[in-house]
């Protein structure tokens, strides 16, 4: 049945209707568990982009060093790790120069932890919007895991320069970087989908997050290679989904060793479960955001 | 005909849990309760003994036809904002269903979503997108938006440096160019200076001519009257009237008489004082509600002080229909020693000549303990009109009194210095 009588459609509305498929919506108290309305997110992609741009624009405004901050932090972390773990503790690095080895780990980890942090807290940061305006709430965690890709890209270019300086050249394995990044993003999104709604209700999450991420980092092969974990504990170690991702990332960047398919497969299955569960959880919680935030 | 309905609501209701915010924000409590409540929709039935739920809105059923302008009235907390929030999908109803046909623009608060650090230009794009416009559409309308806002000189300045007036102008201008099929307005017209308000009202009328459906929440009965043919009157979350504006406003005004002022929050240990009646008389001693500009008004208040109260401060305030607080008479400020209020009694006060401009006003009566002590009672009183052929609030502000004028520069002899004369000459006669 035609829902829009032609007389009242302004040109702009017409374009929206074309673009959005339908204009108009139903109001109802409850939805089915798997009615995730991902189509709404797609229709709101432009707002997603605009909100992301806003965050990027604002982040380094009125900072003298501007976007340089995006790399200063990881670079300093790598320097410290290189001194402490590389020189003093003499932790192995699978035959690579320690600084390059650590940089690759820190890079993917920074992307991941930054995405988790933003997607978990962004709902509260934008509480004013959530309370006063309708938009598909899912675009907030989605945007939060896309925006840090900018910083990742800058860092990645620096990593390539660093590698060439050390005489290391990437192989065809590097083609695996985007899919691995996608997996890291999916895991960060899953965390955000769980933690974001919890943070709306309990601000405790915001305080727990930094040390949770700190612990998680040391439970992942960032400053040390996964190979130092005793073989009989590898299976337990692989239950941390970031293990497969970080390992895979180094394999992709340095083109050495072999991809640990088993570990990666465990990561993927875990992430898939966390993600689907997170989506359902987020949608269930979504309708009270405006009331409790 | 389905196509003629812009908004259809069937038994919409929204339940909130009293004190929800404070209670469930304790993480420990929830850990103790078990995580199961997290998977519920939030408003799970409360356990026995805990604070009861309350319904901010209940059984809201109505149809709004395409092109209709409907005013939503009611005291604060009657559920008006909840209704708009449900209709605009900010929050989901606890029960009931509804359907909204067409592009909806909700202006529940102008400027939500503006980012302080960004410039006016960047904010136009940001806010436009938040309101649901496409980027290409905003770009196309950008010049018109800036023109409408009249702040083109500052468009590349971060909005944190804007005055609140500029901020509102820019935000409203963006919203004004949304071209919605359905517009939800919540008191936003009550912002900005007067000329800008005029613009906003013109904008609303413009939309009206284009056939848009407008839902308008306001305390300003005059705006409601001028914009809406129909009102929905909400009282404690329920629709008590839905029909012609005049009839609805009359009912609302009758209900408001002696209603407890919405901003008054009694404490349990307060002395009980009741206002039982308020009457208005003209200079001739006749009861009336329509006063001429400059007329004196006699206000008679009947009270019943069930608990005696010593050295009270009795205050009678005058509020204009758009909630502008115009004046307050205070017994303490006027040096009247009402040493004790006890039992039933009467207070009468005759105002100086009322020099308020033409509008509708509401009296508020409050009694405070001692000097500036706790407020023990506050009620909305009678409404009255002031009539003046020229002085209306849309051009003459709150009050008007003739001033003494002198045009010295023009009349004085030529011996004064030339500068002053040249200025005087420039002025049109």
Gyration radius of chain B, rounded: 26 Å
Mean pLDDT of chain B: 80
- Residues in helices of chain B, as a percent range: 25-40%
Gross morphology of chain A is: globular
Secondary-structure element string of chain A: HEHHHHHHHHHHHHH
Q: Your description of this structure?
A:
- The complex is a heterodimer of chains A (293) and B (429).
- Chain A has 293 residues and is mainly α.
- Chain A has one domain (42-292).
- Chain A is built from 14 helices and 1 strand.
- Chain A has helices at residues 11-20, 38-43, 45-59, 69-88, 98-125, 127-132, 139-146, 149-165, 177-201, 204-218, 234-237, 241-254, 261-286, 289-292; one strand spanning 25-27.
- By secondary structure, chain B is of the alpha/beta class.
- Chain B has 2 domains: 2-12 and 54-256, P-loop containing nucleotide triphosphate hydrolases (Rossmann fold, 3-Layer(aba) Sandwich), CATH 3.40.50.300; 273-396, Distorted Sandwich (Coagulation Factor XIII, Chain A, domain 1).
- Helix content of chain B is 26%, strand content 32%.
- Chain B has 12 helices and 17 strands.
- Chain B has helices spanning 20-24, 27-33, 80-87, 120-131, 135-149, 164-176, 194-209, 221-227, 245-256, 393-396, 408-411, 418-426; strands spanning 5-17, 53-65, 69-73, 95-100, 104-107, 182-186, 213-217, 230-235, 238-244, 273-281, 290-292, 298-310, 313-320, 325-330, 340-350, 359-368, 375-387.
- In chain B, the strands form 4 sheets. A 6-stranded mixed sheet of chain B has the order 5-6-7-3-8-9, with helices on both faces.
- Chain B is globular, with a radius of gyration of 26 Å.
């Amino acid at each position: 049945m035609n829902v829009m009588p032609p007389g009242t459609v302004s040109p702009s509305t017409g374009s929206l209707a074309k673009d959005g498929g339908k204009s108009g919506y139903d109001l109802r108290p409850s939805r089915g568990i798997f009615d995730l309305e991902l189509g709404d997110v797609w229709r709101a992609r432009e707002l997603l982009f605009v909100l992301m741009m806003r965050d990027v624009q604002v982040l380094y405004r009125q900072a003298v060093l501007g976007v340089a901050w995006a790399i200063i932090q990881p670079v300093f972390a790598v320097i410290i790790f290189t001194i402490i773990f590389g020189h003093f503790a003499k932790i192995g690095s699978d035959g690579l120069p320690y600084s390059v080895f650590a940089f690759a780990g820190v890079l993917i980890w920074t992307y991941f932890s930054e995405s988790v942090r933003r997607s978990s807290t962004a709902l509260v940061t934008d509480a004013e919007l959530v309370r006063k305006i309708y938009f598909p709430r899912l675009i907030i965690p989605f945007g939060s895991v896309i925006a840090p890709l900018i910083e990742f890209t800058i860092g990645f270019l620096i990593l390539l320069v660093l590698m060439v300086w050390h005489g290391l050249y990437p192989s065809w394995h590097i083609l695996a970087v985007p899919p691995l990044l996608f997996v890291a993003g999916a895991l960060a999104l899953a965390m955000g989908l769980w933690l974001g709604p919890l943070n709306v209700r309990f601000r405790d999450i915001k305080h727990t997050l930094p040390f949770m991420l700190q612990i998680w980092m040391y439970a992942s092969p960032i400053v040390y290679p996964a190979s130092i974990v005793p073989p009989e504990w590898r299976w337990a170690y692989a239950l941390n989904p970031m293990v497969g991702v970080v390992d895979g990332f180094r394999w992709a960047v340095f083109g050495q060793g072999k991809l640990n398919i088993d570990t990666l497969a465990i990561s993927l299955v875990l992430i898939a479960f966390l993600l689907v569960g997170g989506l359902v959880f987020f949608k269930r919680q979504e309708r009270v955001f405006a009331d409790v935030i | 005909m389905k196509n003629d309905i812009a908004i259809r609501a069937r038994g919409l209701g929204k339940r909130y849990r009293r004190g929800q915010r404070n209670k469930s924000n304790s993480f420990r409590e929830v850990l103790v309760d078990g995580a199961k409540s997290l998977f519920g929709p939030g408003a799970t039935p409360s356990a026995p003994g805990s604070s009861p739920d309350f319904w901010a809105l209940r059984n809201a059923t109505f149809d709004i036809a395409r092109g209709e302008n409907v005013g939503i009235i009611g005291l604060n907390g009657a559920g008006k904002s909840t209704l708009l929030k449900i209709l605009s999908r900010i929050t989901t109803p606890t029960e009931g269903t509804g359907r909204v046909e067409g592009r909806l623009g909700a202006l529940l608060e102008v400027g939500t979503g503006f980012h302080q650090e960004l410039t006016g230009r960047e904010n136009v794009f940001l806010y436009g997108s938040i309101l649901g416009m496409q980027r290409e559409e905003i770009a196309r309308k950008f010049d018109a938006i800036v023109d409408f806002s009249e702040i083109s000189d500052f468009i590349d300045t971060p909005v944190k440096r804007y005055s609140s007036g500029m901020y509102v102008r820019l935000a409203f201008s963006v919203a004004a160019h949304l071209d919605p099929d359905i517009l939800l307005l919540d008191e936003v017209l009550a912002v900005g200076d007067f000329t800008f308000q005029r613009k906003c009202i013109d904008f609303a009328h413009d939309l009206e001519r284009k056939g848009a459906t407008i839902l308008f929440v306001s305390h300003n009965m005059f705006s409601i009257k001028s914009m809406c043919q129909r009102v929905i009157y909400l009282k404690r979350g329920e629709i008590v009237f839905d029909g012609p504006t005049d009839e609805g406003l009359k009912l609302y005004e009758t209900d408001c008489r002696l209603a407890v002022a919405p901003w008054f929050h009694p404490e349990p240990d307060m002395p009980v004082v009741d206002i039982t009646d308020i009457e208005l008389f003209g200079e001739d001693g006749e009861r009336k509600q329509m006063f001429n500009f400059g007329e004196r008004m006699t206000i008679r208040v009947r009270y019943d002080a069930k608990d005696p109260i010593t050295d009270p401060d009795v205050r009678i305030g005058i509020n204009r229909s758009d909630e502008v607080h115009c004046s307050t008479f205070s017994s303490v400020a006027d040096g009247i020693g009402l040493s004790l209020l006890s039992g039933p009694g009467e207070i009468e006060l005759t105002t100086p000549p009322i020099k308020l401009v033409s509008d509708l006003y509401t009296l508020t009566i409050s009694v405070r303990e001692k000097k500036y002590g706790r407020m023990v009672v506050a009620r909305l009183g009678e409404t009255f009109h002031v009539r003046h052929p020229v002085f209306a609030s849309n051009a003459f502000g709150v009050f008007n009194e003739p001033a003494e004028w002198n045009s010295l520069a023009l009349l004085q002899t030529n011996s004064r210095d030339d500068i002053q004369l040249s200025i005087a000459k420039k002025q049109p006669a």
